[in-house]
Amino acid sequence: MNYLFSGQESHLKEKAIESLKSKLLKKDSFKLNFSIYQAGIDDIKDILDTAKTLPLSGEFRIIVIKNIDKLLSRDRERLLDYLKKPSTQTALILDCSNDIDKDDSWINLMRLAKRVHFKKPVGRDLDIWVKNEASRLDKSISNEAIELLKEKTEADDLNRLKNELGKLSLFVGENAEINESDVEEIVGKSSNKSIFKLIDYISQKDAESSLDIISDLISRKVKPYEIIGLLAWYFRNIFMNNSKYPSFNKDKIKDNIELLLNADLAIKRSKMSPKLVLEFAVLRLCR
């Protein structure tokens, strides 16, 4: 089973991956038979050797390769050779945020993998998504609250929206509905301003002040992976909008986003303290 997950909506991709894990893997074999790799960083030979290896204490193995557009040409050929004769007991998920439709060298890959495109919901579709997420928390949410929530979070990151809905659900307690005043109270005190300050300090290479901001955010119950996600989101915006930071050229911003992505993976895959991973990442950003 070969899958090509395209599009920039990481939250929906993660949900699809979790759904596949639930269907194909036994709970006690998640750690043994589920692996995430980074194209261009992890060795493609090692990845494919793992894909060919029989799963441990289960019927299937799931392997995710992130950012496959970063594969070198020779590694791409090795991947295509595997896809022609894949293991029947491995679900290989190839994740790509960029549009590879216009790249002729990927035509064979798209023929050999089932493509699923993940598009960010917008407009009414986004409103429906928010209502569905609130419903999963046994809450309803008013239309006015949805509009304010989108405004406060900039409605671009579904993970952020989901996290804020979780906070709102806890805040309203036994109340059945999340209303506009709840959003103003909780999301209005969000970490956006602190993240702006943090990026300013990083641009000035002020490591001490950057670490102070992180400590403050964590004391306010903002999780390290949320801080990493917000930093990555703002760096992407700086990249796309040629924003005001002269110390960040496009190559530097790309490096910063990749560093944050690796930090996010380290939090998920290593036993290191998430706070420590975040602090190391920010120190490197300040170099």
CATH architecture of the largest domain: 3-Layer(aba) Sandwich
CATH topology group of the largest domain: Rossmann fold
User: H/E series, N to C?
Assistant: EHHEHEHEHEHEHHEHHHHHH
**Class computed from helices, strands and strand pairing:** alpha/beta
User: Overall 3D geometry?
Assistant: globular
Radius of gyration (Å): 20 Å
Average pLDDT number: 84
Helix content: 55-70%
Beginning-to-end CA distance, first to last residue: 43 Å
Could you say how many structural domains there are in total? 3
Q: Can you tell me about this structure?
A:
- By secondary structure, the chain is an alpha/beta fold.
- The protein has 3 domains: 2-117, P-loop containing nucleotide triphosphate hydrolases (Rossmann fold, 3-Layer(aba) Sandwich); 123-189, Helicase, Ruva Protein, domain 3 (Orthogonal Bundle), CATH 1.10.8.60; 192-285, Zinc Finger, Delta Prime, domain 3 (Up-down Bundle), CATH 1.20.272.
- It has 14 helices and 7 strands.
- A 5-stranded parallel beta sheet has the order 2-3-4-1-5, sandwiched between helices. It has a two-stranded parallel sheet with strand order 6-7.
- α10 (192-203) packs antiparallel against α11, α11 (207-219) packs antiparallel against α14 and α12 (224-241) runs antiparallel to α13.
- The chain is globular and about 55 Å long.
- It starts with a strand and ends with a helix.
